[in-house]
Amino acid sequence: MKKVMGKKGRIITVIVCCSVIVILLSVVYVLKTQKQVYYNALNQDDKQVADIYARMYETPVEDIAEMKAKSNDWETVQKQLDIDFFTIGENIKYQMEKEGYALEDLYEAEKLSQKTGKRALSLAKAKGKAAEGRKWSEVVSDEEIKTTEEQLGLSEEQVKELEKRKLNTDERIDIAILCLNGTYTWGEILKELDQGKKVPELAKR
Predict the structure, then answer these.
(1) pTM (2 decimals)?
(2) Which of 130, 132, 174, 188 could form a disulfide with 102 if both were Cys (CB 3.0 to 4.6 A apart)?
(3) Residue 73, Cβ neighbours under 10 Å: how many?
(4) Closest CA to 84 of 122, 128, 119
(5) How many other C-beta atoms lie within 10 A of the C-beta of residue 193?
């Protein structure tokens, strides 16, 4: 009798577990579908912005579309993406410190995130816990320290070329974005600049 009850108990447990899995998968599917709806609702220009942010911040484009739908303001979206990408939340810092990460490493990860264009939390985890004794030079090389323009896809040589043309940082960043989103190729950018076009004029294309 006990064996029968035990067998029934295991069967019930399996059924319950399967039901929970099915429910969780259904919830995930509904959420994913809803996020896709947010993206599909964007106009073409907003989709382009969302695609760029997705590449820049290593974030699913559907999540970005959801943020845009809830804030209806790209500036607010970018500020939140900056916070999520370049900083580590205080609650997360507290928990990681309890797990053995050095607090100074967490702050250093935030600084290096700005310089390398890599997510701060990923850098902190790559550095590892204090007891592991890993050095930052083992995690980030000098070659990985990049300007904002380079993080957006321009090469060091291309940045220098724009500097020779007396373009300021904001103008160089704008050009990097124009190349990133496919509005211009690098050759087309140089051609337009040679013809006397200003960066704000290029952005109107």
Answers:
(1) 0.70
(2) 130
(3) 11
(4) 119
(5) 17
